[in-house]
Design goal:
- The chain has 998 residues and is mainly alpha-helical.
- The protein is 61% helix and 5% strand.
- It has 44 helices and ten strands.
- The strands form two sheets. Strands 1, 2, 3, 4 and 5 form a five-stranded mixed sheet that branches. Strands 6, 7, 8, 9 and 10 form a five-stranded mixed sheet that branches.
- Helix 4 packs across helix 6 and helix 25 runs parallel beside helix 27.
Length: 998
C-alpha cells in the first residue's frame, strides 16, 4: 500500500508514458476489465506510443466492457497482447479518434477488422472497399460498414503504414465505393427509374482528385441520358429522383450518424440549375456560359459511379474546353481574384487558425498548381492529373516549377494536410480550423511525431510551413520565367521559350517576346546584381500582372534598374525593405505619369521604402517652402534657382502620385483605402501646397536676381480656382491673381514695371523646357480677363471691384486665398474682397438669374463637340461644375450669415451647408460622392495617360487602368462607367432642384 502523500510507482510510470491524468488512468487500469493484462508492460508501452494515451486507455476499457461475455473479452485482450500489429492499430486509432472509439463501443466485434495483416490489406482499392460494403442494404447498414472500412484506413494512417497521399487516396476510393453502394440502394428502391435512364456520377474536388479528407463534402456532378427507347424528359426526371435519393442516403443523419454531405453545387448554374443534365446540355453550358473557376473545377472531374462509360464520355467531351481555358481574357486575374475572394470571406477571428483557406494554407498550394496546369496542360499532357501532389511532381519534372520550390511545397502540403486529417479524425467532423485547446494541440502534435513539447513544436512547424506556402505560392508561377532566360546549371530542367511566352500571355502581357527580352537583360549572368534580380522578379512579375498594363510595368522596371543598377542601395532597398518592391511595382505599372517623373530622377525610388527616404507621407507646406527657399538661396542666378525649385516639385509630385497609387491599389500588408474622399483631399492638399511653395521659391529667385533683397513694390500672389480651393490635380494649371503696392517713395510706374517684370519672369522660368514638368500660371480670372493688366495695385483692384465688378467675379473670388509673397498685402486683398463674395443679405434675384444663365450657357457652349455629357467629369451631367456652382451659390447667398461657409474648399463648404441645414445630410452626401468621384477620375486619367483629360480614355488598356485605380477588377470597366453615370445622375437631379430651382 502506498503511504499517504506519496505517489505510487504506477502513477509515476503513467506520467513517464505521456498520460496527462495519471490518477484517472490508474483507476481505469485497476478496474476489472483490464485485470488480465494490467501488469503486462507491453500494454503500457503501447498506450504511451499513441497520440493521446488517456484517450486510448479510456477507449480500450469501453471496448472491453462492450464485448459480449467473458470469452469475447478474453479473446480481445489475448490478441491485443500477443499480436503487435493489432495492438498498434487498435490503440493508435483509440488514441486519435474519439468518434471511432464510439463506433467500436457500439459495434464491439468490429475490432476484428484490424486483425488481418495480409499484403493486399495494406493498400486496398475500390474493389476491396466494395467488398467491405457489399452487405449494406440500407442507409444505416451502409454507415456501419463505411465506418468499419474507415477504421482500417485510420489504423494504417496513424501507424505510419500509409503516408498522407496514400491515406487520402484510400479515403477517395472508399468514397467511390460508398457512392456506388448508395446508388445501388437507390436503384433497388426504384427499379423503374433505374430502367429508364443512364446516370453517371462524376466526382469533383478532392474526391475527384483522389485526395479526400476524413470528413469532407463529396462534390459531384450528375450526367443523365435516356435508356434505349425511353423518353428523354421522363428519363431525366427518373435520373433526378435516383440522384436525389443517393445524396440523401449519404447525407442524412440516422441512428448511426451520417457519412458525409454530397454536394452537387459545382454543376452548371449551381444550386439554381437542374440536378441532372444530359451530356449535350453540359457541353452547351460550358461552351457558352461557364466562368473561369468552373473550368478550374473540372480539372478534378472523375467518373466514379453509375454508368462509367457515360462518365468517361463526359470527361473526354469537356477536356478540350478545360485545356483552352487559359486563353480566356483575364484568365490569371480571374483565378487570383477568386482566391482573394475566398480569403476575404473568412471571419477575421478565424483567419489565423484557418488551415485550408487562410493565407499560407492548403488552398494556396492547390490554386497555384491548378493555375500552372491550366496554362501549360494544353501542350503537355503529363500535367493533367487531378491530384495536387502528382501534378506538382509533374510540373517540377517538366521545368514549369523549380525543383527546390516544388520540394518545399510538397513538404508543406503534406504537413498541413496531415494536420487537417488529425483534426478531423478526432470527432469525425468537417473542420479546417486549428483548435485553441492545448489538449487538442498536444494530441495533434504527438500524432505527427512531435513528442518533445508537442504544442510548441506543432505551432512552430505549422507556422514554418505556412510561411513557406505564403512565400512560394505566387512566386511558383513567375520564377521559372527567369530560369527560362537565365544561365542555369547544365541538365537543369527549365521552361521552353514557347512555354514561357504561353505563361506571359496568360498573365496578360501583350508582347511576351519583349517581356522575355527584358527578363533576360535583368536576370542573366552570374553577377550579384543578376542574382538579386532573380530573387526579386518572381514577386514583381506577379504585382505587374495585377495591373492593367504588365508590359509597361516590366519595361519601366528595366529602365529604372538600368539607371540605378550600379547604385549599391537600390537593389538592397528592394530586397530588404518589404514595402519598397511592392510599392515600386504598383507605381511602375499604374500608368505613365509616375514612371515619367521617376525616370527623370530615378533616385526618388528611395521614397518608396520605409527608411530614411521619408516614405510616401506628403510633406507640409512649411517643410516644402523651407527646402525650396534654401535651395534657391544656394543657387547661382535665377534660372539655376528655379531649376532647383522645379526639381523639388518633380520629386514631391512623384511622392504624391506614388502615395495615391499605393493607397488606391492596396498592398499585401494593407488593403486599398476605402475613403475615396480622403484620397482626393490628400492629392489636392499635397499638390496645392507644393504649387504654393514652388511659387514662393520662384518669386524669391526672381526678386533676388533682379533687385537683390528688396523689390521696389510689395508683391503678393493670390490663389484662385482649384489652387485657391486646395483642390489641384496632377495636371492642373495654377490659377492666380497678382497684386502689388509701391513701397514708400517709389514711383508708381517704376513699381508697376517691376511687378510686371516679376510676373513675366516667373512665368518664363517655370515653363523653360527641361526634365522637370512645367508649372503653367493662369491669370485669366483677373479683372477684365485677358484684356486687363496682369498685375494691379491694391487700389486698382478696389476701384475696379467697386465700380465694374460682375457677379461671376464675386463667384470666382470665393476661391481666393493668399499663397505667396507679402502676407500683409495678401491679407488686405482678402479683406477687400470679402464683402463682394459674402454680400450682406445674400444675392438679389437678378444676380441669381445671371449666375444660372451663365451656367446654362457654359453647359451649352463649352462642352467639347462629340463629348458624352454623361461621362465628362468637368462640364458633364452631375460633374465638377454642377456640384461646385451649386455649393458656391449657397456660399454667395448665405456666407454673410454662416461663418462655416466662408471657406475656399468645396467639400468643407458643402459640409458647412449641411451643418447649417441649408441642405439635407443625404443630399450633401450625394453631391459630395459625385464631386469626389469626378475628381478621382480626373486624377486617374492624368496618372494613366500622363496628360490631363476630363473624360474617360477611349483606349481599352488605359480605360482598364483607370478602372483598376478606382477599385474595379479586370473585366469590370462596364460596371465602372455604369456606376459613374448612376452617381452623377443622382447629383444632377439635385442640381436641377437646388441650383436651378426646378
Amino acid at each position: 500500500m502506498t503511504a499517504p502523500g506519496r505517489r505510487s510507482s504506477t502513477f509515476t510510470r503513467l506520467l513517464r508514458h505521456g498520460f496527462t491524468d495519471p490518477s484517472a488512468a490508474e483507476r481505469l487500469l485497476d478496474g476489472a476489465e483490464l485485470e488480465p493484462v494490467r501488469s503486462d508492460p507491453v500494454l503500457l508501452e503501447a498506450l504511451g506510443a499513441t497520440a493521446d494515451p488517456d484517450l486510448a486507455l479510456l477507449g480500450l476499457v469501453r471496448l472491453v466492457e462492450a464485448q459480449d461475455g467473458h470469452s469475447a473479452q478474453r479473446e480481445l485482450l489475448d490478441t491485443l497482447i500477443a499480436a503487435k500489429p493489432l495492438r498498434d492499430r487498435l490503440l493508435g486509432v483509440l488514441g486519435s479518434s474519439a468518434a471511432l472509439a464510439d463506433h467500436l463501443a457500439r459495434h464491439p466485434r468490429d475490432w476484428h477488422a484490424l486483425v488481418t495483416y495480409e499484403p493486399q490489406d495494406l493498400h486496398p482499392g475500390v474493389r476491396e472497399f466494395e467488398r467491405g460494403l457489399a452487405e449494406a442494404s440500407s442507409p444505416v447498414s451502409l454507415r456501419v460498414a463505411y465506418r468499419r472500412c474507415l477504421l482500417s484506413i485510420a489504423a494504417r494512417d496513424v501507424c505510419g503504414t500509409t503516408d498522407l497521399a496514400q491515406s487520402a487516396a484510400e479515403l477517395a476510393d472508399l468514397a467511390t465505393a460508398t457512392l456506388r453502394a448508395a446508388l445501388a440502394i437507390a436503384e433497388t428502391a426504384a427499379p423503374d427509374d433505374a430502367a429508364q435512364c443512364r446516370l453517371a456520377v462524376i466526382a469533383m474536388g478532392k474526391c475527384g482528385g483522389h485526395e479526400l479528407n476524413y470528413v469532407s463534402d463529396v462534390d459531384v456532378i450528375f450526367v443523365g441520358e435516356a435508356a434505349d427507347g425511353a423518353d428523354e424528359r421522363k428519363a431525366l426526371q427518373a435520373a433526378t429522383r435516383l440522384a436525389s435519393h443517393m445524396m440523401r442516403i449519404c447525407s442524412e443523419t440516422t441512428v448511426e450518424g451520417s457519412i458525409w454531405p454530397v454536394d452537387a453545387n459545382l454543376r452548371p448554374e449551381g444550386r439554381n440549375g437542374p440536378l441532372v443534365r444530359t451530356l449535350s446540355s453540359h457541353l452547351a453550358y460550358y461552351q457558352r456560359w461557364a466562368k473561369t473557376w468552373e473550368f478550374q473545377a473540372l480539372l478534378k472531374a472523375r467518373p466514379v459511379a453509375g454508368d462509367l462509360g457515360l462518365g468517361e464520355q463526359y470527361v473526354a467531351t469537356l477536356a478540350p474546353l478545360v485545356w483552352h481555358a487559359a486563353e480566356r481574357d483575364n484568365f490569371v486575374a480571374d483565378v487570383q481574384k477568386m482566391r482573394r475572394r475566398v480569403v476575404e470571406n473568412i471571419p477575421a477571428a478565424e483567419i489565423e487558425r484557418e488551415l485550408k483557406l487562410g493565407p499560407g494554407g492548403l488552398r494556396d498550394v492547390e490554386f497555384a498548381v491548378q493555375l500552372l496546369q491550366l496554362v501549360h496542360g494544353r501542350a503537355d499532357t503529363s500535367l493533367r492529373s487531378g491530384t495536387t501532389l502528382d501534378a506538382l511532381k509533374a510540373l517540377a519534372a517538366g521545368g514549369y516549377v523549380g525543383r527546390a520550390d516544388a520540394m518545399q511545397l510538397d513538404d508543406a502540403y503534406r504537413f498541413l494536410r496531415s494536420m487537417e486529417h488529425r483534426i478531423q479524425l478526432y470527432r469525425l467532423r468537417r473542420t479546417h480550423l486549428v483548435p485553441q485547446d492545448e489538449s487538442y494541440l498536444r494530441r495533434i502534435g504527438r500524432s505527427l511525431g512531435l513528442r518533445s513539447d508537442p504544442v510548441v513544436a506543432l505551432n512552430r512547424e505549422w507556422k514554418r510551413h505556412a510561411a513557406v506556402v505564403r512565400r512560394l505560392h505566387e512566386k511558383l508561377f513567375y520564377r521559372p520565367l527567369l530560369d527560362a532566360v537565365a544561365q542555369l546549371a547544365p541538365g537543369e530542367s527549365r521552361l521552353s521559350p514557347d512555354a514561357a511566352r504561353e505563361r506571359l500571355v496568360a498573365l496578360g502581357y501583350a508582347d511576351p517576346a519583349a517581356a522575355l527580352r527584358h527578363l533576360e537583360a535583368l536576370a542573366s549572368g552570374v553577377t550579384r546584381k543578376a542574382a538579386i534580380q532573380r530573387t526579386l522578379l518572381p514577386v514583381l512579375l506577379g504585382w505587374f500582372a495585377d495591373s492593367a498594363d504588365p508590359d509597361a510595368g516590366l519595361l519601366n522596371f528595366r529602365k529604372v534598374s538600368d539607371a540605378l543598377g550600379k547604385t549599391p542601395w537600390y537593389l538592397r532597398l528592394l530586397r530588404d525593405e518589404g514595402a519598397a518592391a511592392e510599392n515600386l511595382a504598383r507605381v511602375l505599372s499604374a500608368g505613365r505619369l509616375a514612371p515619367d517623373l521617376l525616370m527623370r530622377a530615378p533616385e526618388a525610388v528611395a521614397l518608396l521604402g520605409d527608411g530614411d527616404g521619408g516614405g510616401l507621407e506628403p510633406r507640409t507646406r512649411d517643410h516644402l517652402e523651407q527646402e525650396i527657399l534654401a535651395a534657391v538661396g544656394r543657387a547661382d542666378g535665377g534660372e539655376q534657382a528655379v531649376t532647383a525649385a522645379r526639381g523639388v516639385r518633380r520629386r514631391e509630385l512623384f511622392r504624391t502620385a506614388a502615395a495615391d497609387i499605393v493607397a488606391s491599389y492596396g498592398t499585401e500588408e494593407s488593403p486599398a483605402v476605402a475613403d475615396q474622399g480622403a484620397l482626393v483631399d490628400l492629392v489636392g492638399g499635397a499638390v496645392s501646397d507644393l504649387t504654393a511653395a514652388t511659387l514662393a521659391g520662384t518669386l524669391r529667385a526672381v526678386v533676388r536676381d533682379g533687385w537683390g533683397d528688396t523689390l521696389p513694390t510689395r508683391f503678393a500672389v493670390i490663389g484662385m480656382g482649384r489652387f485657391g480651393g486646395h483642390e489641384l490635380g496632377y495636371g492642373s494649371d495654377a490659377d492666380v491673381l497678382f497684386v502689388h503696392e509701391p513701397r514708400e517713395g517709389v514711383d508708381e510706374q517704376e513699381a508697376a514695371r517691376a511687378a510686371n517684370k516679376v510676373v513675366s519672369e516667373m512665368r518664363r522660368l517655370l515653363q523653360i523646357p527641361s526634365a522637370d514638368p512645367p508649372l503653367l500660371i493662369d491669370a485669366d480670372l483677373r479683372p477684365e480677363g485677358k484684356s486687363g493688366p496682369l498685375v494691379r495695385t491694391l487700389k486698382s483692384y478696389e476701384a475696379y471691384y467697386r465700380r465694374w465688378s460682375l457677379v461671376w467675379e464675386s463667384q470666382a473670388l470665393l476661391r481666393a486665398v493668399h499663397v505667396a509673397g507679402d502676407e500683409d498685402l495678401g491679407g488686405r486683398f482678402i479683406e477687400l474682397i470679402d464683402p463682394l463674395r459674402y454680400p450682406v443679405e445674400g444675392l438679389g434675384d437678378d444676380a441669381v438669374r445671371e449666375i444660372r444663365r451663365l451656367k446654362a450657357r457654359m453647359e451649352a457652349e463649352r462642352l467639347p463637340r462629340g463629348a458624352d455629357p454623361t461621362l465628362h467629369t468637368k462640364l458633364g451631367r452631375g460633374g465638377l461644375s454642377d456640384v461646385e456652382w451649386t455649393v458656391q451659390l449657397m456660399q454667395l447667398q448665405n456666407g454673410w450669415a454662416e461663418p462655416g461657409l466662408r471657406t475656399t474648399r468645396t467639400r468643407e463648404a458643402l459640409a458647412a451647408a449641411c451643418a447649417a441645414e441649408l441642405i439635407s445630410t443625404e443630399d450633401a452626401a450625394t453631391l459630395d460622392e459625385a464631386w469626389v468621384l469626378a475628381t478621382r477620375v480626373r486624377n486617374a486619367v492624368m496618372l494613366v495617360r500622363g496628360r490631363a483629360g476630363d473624360t474617360f480614355p477611349s483606349d481599352s488598356r488605359e480605360l482598364a487602368a483607370v478602372g483598376r485605380y478606382l477599385g474595379y477588377g479586370p473585366g469590370h470597366v462596364g460596371d465602372m462607367l455604369d456606376d459613374y453615370r448612376r452617381t452623377t445622375r443622382r447629383a444632377r437631379a439635385l442640381v436641377e432642384e437646388l441650383f436651378y430651382g426646378a
